[in-house]
């Protein structure tokens, strides 16, 4: 399934990244108003092809495809953590 990926420009937590996946060519203005309001400003990232069972970092492709087929979109979030260790191994 070809999808357009949009990045949510601002999140409450600076370590969180959220993305909107929609079928390629979808006008994001057609999303439900409450979802558009929740997501805020979106920035187009890229177009990708996802397949059932495909392994992708921080993305369950089966869940994404199922949600896109049912609702027309999928919102995915990921938290980025950085740890610095002073231990010597």
Characterization of the model:
The structure is a single chain. The chain has one domain (2-79): NE1680-like fold, CATH 3.10.510. Helices cover 20% and strands 37% of the residues. The protein is built from two helices and six strands; from the N terminus they run ββαβββαβ. It has helices at residues 33-39, 61-71; strands spanning 2-8, 16-23, 42-49, 55-56, 59-60, 74-79. The protein has a four-stranded antiparallel sheet. Strands 4-5 form a two-stranded antiparallel sheet.
Task: Tell me the β content.
Answer: 35-45%
**Globular, elongated, flat, extended or rod-shaped: what is the shape?**
globular
Count of runs of 4 or more consecutive helical residues? 2
**Widest beta sheet: strand line-up:** 3-1-2-6
Major sheet description:
4 strands, antiparallel
Poorly predicted sequence stretches spanning 5 or more consecutive residues: none
C-alpha Rg (nearest Å): 15 Å
- SSE run: EEHEEEHE
Fourth-tier CATH superfamily name: YcgL domain
Distance between the termini: 45 Å
Give the integer mean of the pLDDT values.
88
Assign the CATH class. Answer: Alpha Beta
CATH fold-level name: NE1680-like fold
* Alpha-beta classification: alpha+beta
Query: How many strands in all?
Result: 6
Q: What's the architecture in CATH terms? A: Roll
Helix content: 10-25%
Estimate nothing, just give the exact number of structural domains.
1
């Amino acid at each position: 399934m070809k999808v357009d990926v949009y990045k949510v420009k601002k999140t409450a937590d600076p370590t969180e990244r959220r993305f909107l996946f929609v079928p390629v060519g979808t006008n994001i203005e057609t999303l439900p108003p409450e979802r558009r309001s929740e997501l805020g400003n979106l920035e187009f990232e890229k177009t990708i092809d996802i397949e059932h069972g495909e392994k992708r970092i921080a993305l369950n492709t089966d869940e994404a495809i199922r949600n896109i087929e049912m609702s027309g979109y999928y919102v995915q979030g990921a938290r980025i953590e950085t740890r610095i260790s002073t231990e010597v191994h």
